[in-house]
Amino acid sequence: MWIRGTARPLVGLLLGIEISIIALAPAASAAPMAPDGEPRLTPRIITRSYHVEEPVQVSRWYVPQHRHVHSHAQQSGHVPQDGYVSGYRPGDGGRHRKAADRRARTATGTARAALPALNLGRVKHRHATVRMSHDHAAKYLLGAGLRYRSTGHCTDRHVNTCTSLDSVRTGTVARIIALKHASDCPIMVTGGTEVGHAPGRFSHGQGYKLDISHNACIDRYIAQHSEPAGVRGDGARLYRAPSGTVYADESDHWDIMFK
């Protein structure tokens, strides 16, 4: 009777020990084993972040301040360490700017060295040629005190006995008016753009030349305000003004080229 009462607690105790051994067996088999067959401790799972001991040299604009991340972590009761650390220091801004300035100066100097030398003194302004009708040109001349005449009493450009100002350059009209004002001499235009004159780039037909009659006043002014420039092929003496105007002294008129 005593044996039966004592055996029951003993059997329960042995059964509990066996169950504990069976439960521990899978965990022991799953643990990593050392080379000598002894079980090794399983490493704990990392549940927190770590930061690098030394600063990482990265540009400052690649290190954002994750304020929304930190605020969310604080609300949850856990504040993680920064995921990465910038090598930027407050005093580095000047160093970065100086390095950028040196690179910019080097690039500018290289670009300048690659460009050829340019002599701006030889650059000339180019303007589109504007031409006038005979009526408009004649109106300007008469308004400035000049006159014009033709042996044929006509203004047809296609008749050589006429005096035409059709398609004359505005610069030519302006320069002959300037000559009138500078010399204060009477000026009579006797030749314009009509046919019968020598051809060429700076010719009557192209609107660069006008003929004016001789008179003592204009002859004296041209001689005093221009330099001799040789003799033309037909024997006419040439005079060149500082403005570039060339006067050819023909027998009965001045043949003037306005460039």
UniProtKB/TrEMBL annotation:
In Swiss-Prot or TrEMBL terms, this protein is called: Uncharacterized protein
Disordered: where is this region? 71-110
